[in-house]
Amino acid sequence: MNGTYNHTQRSPLCFLLYALGVMFLILSWGFRNEPVIQWMFPFIGILMFFLAASFHHLEVEDEGDQLSISFGPLPLFRRTVPYSEIESVEIGRTTILDGWGIHMSLRGGWVWNLWGRDCVVLKLRKSILRVGTDDPGNLADFVQSRLEDLNRNEHHSKRHQS
Predict the structure, then answer these.
(1) Conformational region of residue 99, where left means phi above 0, alpha means psi within -120 to 50, and beta covers everything else
(2) How far, in Å, CA of 83 to CA of 154, rounded?
(3) Which of 57, 55, 52 is nearest to 10 (CA)?
(4) How many CA atoms lie within 13 A of 91 on its CB side?
(5) What pLDDT score does 100 carry?
(6) Tens of pLDDT along 27-43?
(7) Is the pTM of this model over 0.85?
(8) Cβ–Cβ under 8 Å, residues 159 and 152
(9) What is the CA 44 to chain-centroid distance, rounded?
(10) What is the pLDDT along the chain (162 residues), one digit of tens a residue?
């Protein structure tokens, strides 16, 4: 596979977070005479708005020598994975307990997932990364092609050094 990869998955998860933000702000007004709530609930409401703005979409993009995984449009959460760190790739599924967001999986490794259960499992040198996507076949094929290109180039370099 030639070229680059760029795919954006969208999700309604942000609307739930916006709704929570509004709810906390309304509750803070309703309980404005309660000392702890009058300070804590507005903070939580504003935090929910920031999180909502961070989880509108999940973008997976080829950056030449690495894969970029980022939530957005507010880019608070971003990760890059050099192709040289990836040992293998396969299509997988997250468990219901894996859920959405960024966290450790009960099966080991990290989960970066926005919506749904389809994912691509990247077996890295020191860990596992499950990247949620609604385009698992194309993403897995693209990463596999990058790994094959990397292996071919390393093999070619070793032959010329000998």
Answers:
(1) left
(2) 13
(3) 57
(4) 11
(5) 85
(6) 999 988 888 888 899 99
(7) no
(8) no
(9) 23
(10) 557 999 999 988 899 999 999 999 999 999 888 888 888 999 999 999 999 999 999 999 999 999 999 999 998 899 999 999 999 999 999 988 888 889 999 889 999 999 999 999 999 999 999 999 999 999 999 999 999 988 887 766 666 665
Q: What are phi and psi of 51, to 5 degrees?
A: -65, -40
CB 95 within 8 A of CB 116: no
Sheet-wide strand order for 110-113: 86-93, 118-124, 128-132, 110-113, 101-104
**The dihedral of CA 47, 73, 60, 55: what is its sign?**
positive
Pairing of strands 101-104, 86-93: unpaired
Q: Which amino acid is at 119?
A: C
Decide: 147 and 83 in contact? Cβ < 8 Å.
yes
